[in-house]
Amino acid sequence: MALEVIEHVAEPAEFCKSLSALTVPDGATVISTINRSMRAYATAIVAAEYILRWLPMGTHEWSKFLTPEELVLILQRAGINVEEMAGFAYNPVTGRWSLSDDISVNFIAMGTKTNKTE
User: In the record, which residues are listed under signal peptide (predicted)?
Assistant: First the structure.
């Protein structure tokens, strides 16, 4: 399980290969990150870092965010087959996060190690 980590590493492909190496055959890998979309830039960087100050300014670099398609490809090359993907939605009234069909900002993927790497 690697939640909100991959957008901070220098080599995402090598990071995913390491996750795969640590996963037993047919074992699950769960990874979450931020989509490289304009909506994500507005919410995860502008709003969360500069307006709401939930995170220190400069925590994220938009260029390090991955699209869902990019993450799937990187994981496949590391021998992990993505089986499920969902978004996260924040409710400011309740202060709670929930799973969503919207993967335009934060998303999570679950995959199984296939023993095949490229």
Answer: none
